[in-house]
Give the backbone structure.
Amino acid sequence: MPELKFSDAELQIIANKVATIMKHSRKEAPQQPRMRLLKDAYKQLKEDDPQTSVTESMVRRLALSGKIKTQVLGQKRLINYDSLLEYLSSVHNDPEPEPIEYGKIRPIKE
């Protein structure tokens, strides 16, 4: 059988392809969600980004409105910290409220 000879560049390409195949073939354990109490989630957010403009009240409103994932345990609400970061990193273009026209009969929205 003839001996195969590869250049360093070709060996690097082969190694990268094998590493990619191996990475995708491994079954990784699902990552546990990072659940935090409201104050702990806010504290962690401030540690990650000391200049953030997000307030503890805003995190509470996001949790209560269902915009971020939470879990209620008794009287405590655990916040999924990863869900909070995902929400804050995405773009939200909330629609502007329609201007109210005064002095006219307006239809009732159902």
Summary: Helices lie at 8-25, 38-48, 56-65, 81-89. Strands lie at 35-37, 70-73, 76-80.
